[in-house]
From TrEMBL:
Annotated protein name in UniProt: TetR/AcrR family transcriptional regulator
The organism's taxonomic lineage, starting at the top: Bacteria, Bacillati, Actinomycetota, Actinomycetes, Micromonosporales
Source taxon at top rank: Bacteria
Organism from which the protein derives: Micromonospora globbae
PANTHER family xrefs: HTH-TYPE TRANSCRIPTIONAL REGULATOR BETI, HTH-TYPE TRANSCRIPTIONAL REGULATOR RUTR
Keywords, alphabetical: DNA-binding, Transcription, Transcription regulation
Length: 190
């Protein structure tokens, strides 16, 4: 094998472990490293060759989750259309992240990891989207941007919990989330 092939193989194995960790930890935050190794189809020794301990693996999982969240946010095109339509796209993109969101939620709720907890305050792009919604009349100006952000996160969490507990389809759960969020942010008549 050439050095490039070895390097590519190592990168694929590392990514397979991270992907398996996201899937396993998304379903069971207390899963063992052995469970993750089995899901990645590697031995524990191989897992430990890439990640010395659980903390190292969780750090890599957190970085992967952050990267996927950033890609989903970019795909939602927050600067396009009405504020409310951008909120809907963001909900859809985030919902499609699946177990990545479960890992983020569990990290925020469980260990209280400030690096992966819901951010205090909105990033400027999110705040600009909400402000645009105020101006275009699609988001109730009585709702602060931080509240809209919390609403989205809570509805996504509720959707994943509902899907798991009730066995509802992905399509039905996404429909419920989008309907709930649209109703919650809509401008109310005075």
């Amino acid at each position: 094998m050439t050095e490039a092939q070895v390097s590519g193989s190592r990168a694929r194995t590392r990514q397979a472990i991270i992907d398996a960790a996201i899937d396993v930890l998304g379903r069971n935050p207390a899963a063992s490293l052995g469970d993750i190794a089995t899901a990645a189809d590697v031995g524990r020794t191989t897992l430990h060759r890439y990640f010395a301990d659980r903390a190292d693996l969780l750090k890599a999982v957190g970085a992967e989750a952050d990267a996927r969240l950033a890609r989903a946010t970019a795909a939602a095109r927050l600067a396009e259309g009405t504020g409310a339509s951008a909120v809907q796209r963001l909900c859809q993109e985030y919902f499609d992240l699946g177990n990545v969101l479960s890992v983020v939620f569990n990290a925020a709720l469980g260990a209280g990891d400030p690096e992966h907890a819901e951010p205090a305050g909105c990033d400027p792009e999110f705040a600009a989207m909400v402000e645009r919604g105020y101006r275009d009349g699609t988001i109730d100006p009585a709702l602060p941007a931080d509240w809209v952000q919390s609403l989205i996160w809570s509805q996504l969490y509720a959707g994943w919990a509902y899907q798991g507990e009730m066995g509802a389809s992905r399509h039905e759960v996404l429909r419920l989330i989008l309907r709930t969020v649209a109703g919650a942010i809509a401008v109310r008549p005075a």
